[in-house]
Design brief:
- This protein has a five-stranded mixed sheet.
- The termini are far apart.
- The chain contains eight helices and ten strands.
- By secondary structure, it is α/β, with parallel strands linked by helices.
- The protein is globular and about 55 Å long.
- Strand 9 and strand 10 form a beta hairpin.
């Protein structure tokens, strides 16, 4: 057996793949099995009872993780004049207008989040084929088309996580790092589940949240007992 195979086998020991764990126990197990040399990301996956091919069943939104994501997020802002200066002062990594559109249109994308003021969307719209497939297109529904560029930049840097349902009806996101405390991870996970739950579309029928699972980057997935996360968000 290869070294990787042994590590995977070891990580899966003591885990019941059929059991739905309470969130505190699940987080403890995930943390204890994140033993690589880097700080693994803790990911959540939610299987939803929606068909995103239908417009009234699309799930999309943003969640401000109470304890941050642990990621270093590079933010680009399309803005001019005073708003461009606000973005720079708030910590944006890349700020521009026509010049930035030209750079991105040529395939140079050195950012993880994209924000734009409303007046810039005529220009940014030209980048749909470049930004869209990467999930980077600014959208007012998730607060990335806004006049409050400073707030949006700070939110993105501080732990605002965007989510969008995929074709198979799954939403997934990173909700922290294995180095986070168990309490911080539990709070982040509950906040994320709450945000997705509140984003239930009008066209969703039957059971909306079908399954919740968490894992670290290199670790095994664990099913989570929904009763311990849905409607169980810790008070702020």
């Amino acid at each position: 057996m290869t070294k990787l195979g042994k590590r995977i086998k070891s990580a899966r020991e003591g885990i019941d793949r059929t059991k739905a764990y309470g969130i505190e126990e699940a987080v403890k197990l995930v943390k204890s099995r994140a033993k690589t040399k880097f700080d693994e990301t803790v990911d959540i996956a939610m299987n939803l009872g929606v068909d995103p091919k239908h417009a009234d069943q699309m799930v999309r939104g943003v969640c401000n993780l109470p304890n941050g994501s642990g990621r270093t997020v590079r933010v680009a802002v399309f803005a001019r004049g005073p708003k461009a200066e606000e973005a720079k002062a708030a910590g944006a990594d890349v700020v521009g207008a026509e010049d930035l559109v030209d750079i991105v249109s040529k395939g140079t994308i050195n950012f993880d989040r994209c924000i734009a003021t409303p007046d810039m969307m005529g220009l940014v719209g030209r980048l749909g084929k470049v930004l869209g497939p990467r999930g980077l297109m600014p959208n007012p529904r998730v607060g990335t088309v806004t006049m409050d560029v400073a707030g949006a930049v700070k939110g993105a840097k501080g732990g605002a996580v965007e989510f969008r349902v995929e074709k198979a009806g799954i939403v997934h996101a990173g909700v922290g790092k294995a180095s986070f405390t168990e309490k911080a991870l539990v709070e982040n996970i509950r906040a994320f589940v709450d945000a997705v739950n509140r984003s239930k579309p009008a066209g969703a029928k039957g059971t909306y949240i079908k399954k919740v699972s968490i894992k670290s980057t290199m670790g095994p997935g664990l099913k989570v007992d929904q009763n311990t996360v849905i409607g169980a968000r810790a008070p702020a």
